[in-house]
Amino acid sequence: MNFIQFPGTEAVKELLYRLEPAASARWGIMSAQHMLEHLILPLHISRGLLHVPLATPFEKLEKVKRIMLLSDAPLKKDFAAPFLGSGLQPLQFASFELAQMGLMNEIDLFLAHMEKHPDAVFTHPVFGPLTREEWFLFHRKHFTHHFSQFGLIQN
C-alpha cells in the first residue's frame, strides 16, 4: 500500500488545505473537524505530552506491532483507538479553520521535537514503545487512513 509521505509536511499540508469543513467521511462517524482534532492526539503522545495506558497485553506487543505497524497493511477502517471510548470526542477548537491550523502547528512541533530528541521513545497505546522511525511510520499510516476516509487520497 502507498502511504503519504510523513514527515513530508508540504504534501500533508497541501492535502489538509483541500479538506472542506462539510466533507463527509466514507466510513465512520467523524466530521472533518473531528478527524483533524483526532490526528492531533497521537502527535501529542509521540512527543510525550499525553500519556495513555497500554491496551495491548505485553506478551502480544511484538506480534501486534509487526502485523499492524511494521507491515505494508493499512490500518483497518473499523479500528478504534482504545483510549477514546465510543462516540465522538468533544471538539476542542472553536472552528474547522482553527483545528486545521492547530494540526499543522502540531505537525511542526512534532518534527521539531524529533529533530531535537532523535532518540526519544514514547509509548503508543496499541504498539507499545516506539522509536522516532516507528512514530514516523505510525503517522504515515494514520494520516493515510484518515485522508482516505475523507477522500483526500485514493487507496
Quick summary:
With 155 residues, this protein is mainly alpha-helical.
Provide an overview of this structure.
The protein is mainly α and 155 residues long. It has a domain at 31-73 and 101-155. 46% of the residues lie in helices and 4% in strands. The chain has five helices and two strands; from the N terminus they run ααααββα. Strands 1-2 form a two-stranded antiparallel ribbon. α1 packs antiparallel against α4 and α2 packs parallel to α4.
Succession of helices and strands: HHHHEEH
Q: Outline the low-pLDDT stretches.
A: none
Q: Numbering strands along the chain, what is their spatial order in the largest sheet? A: 1-2
The fraction of residues in strands falls at under 5%
Give the key terms.
two-stranded antiparallel ribbon, 5 helices, 155 residues, mainly alpha, globular, single chain, 2 strands
Please outline the helices and strands:
Elements lengths: L8 H10 L13 H14 L15 H9 L26 H21 L5 E3 L3 E3 L1 H18 L6
Antiparallel strand pairs: 1-2
